[in-house]
Amino acid sequence: TSTVPPSPREEVLEFVDELVGLRLPSLHICVTSRPEHDIRVVLEGLTEHPVSLHEESGQQEDITNYVTSFVRSNQRMKRWRDEDKNLVIKTLSEKADGM
């Protein structure tokens, strides 16, 4: 039987698991990602105090503000119709899914 090599994502999760397993007192790790199931399963088991910003109410507003600022200040987009700019802002803000 052939074995499938681990994906880069699996390798990173395994590496983080190994680092945490060393229990080094001066080692602090901050990991950020989308809240995808396989990542959450691994990371939630590694800490006593997980912090999730995914559901924070201000996060969507921050994304919308950033996209709006970019669209309004981009030289190429300045020539676009307001309706097109607003569609880009709305679509990117909604599809960002908190990231």
Give a quick rundown of the structure.
With 99 residues, the chain is mostly helical. It contains four helices and no strands.
Question: Which descriptors apply to this entry?
Answer:
single chain, 99 residues, mainly alpha
Question: Could you explain how this protein is built, in words?
Answer:
Helices cover 54% and strands 0% of the residues. It is built from four helices and no strands.
| CA gyration radius, whole angstroms | 20 Å
What's the tally of helices? Answer: 4
Described by strand count, sense and barrel closure, the largest sheet is: none
Beta-strand segment tally: 0
Mean pLDDT: 85
- Amount of helix: 40-55%
Instruction: Please indicate the percent range of residues in DSSP E strands (runs of 2 or more).
Output: under 5%
- Point out poorly predicted stretches: none
Distance between the termini: 39 Å
Helix/strand/pairing class, anyone? mainly alpha
| General form | elongated
Q: What pattern of helices and strands is seen along the backbone?
A: HHHH
Layout of helices and strands:
Blueprint: H1 8-21, H2 37-44, H3 57-73, H4 82-95
Helix pairs in contact: 3-4
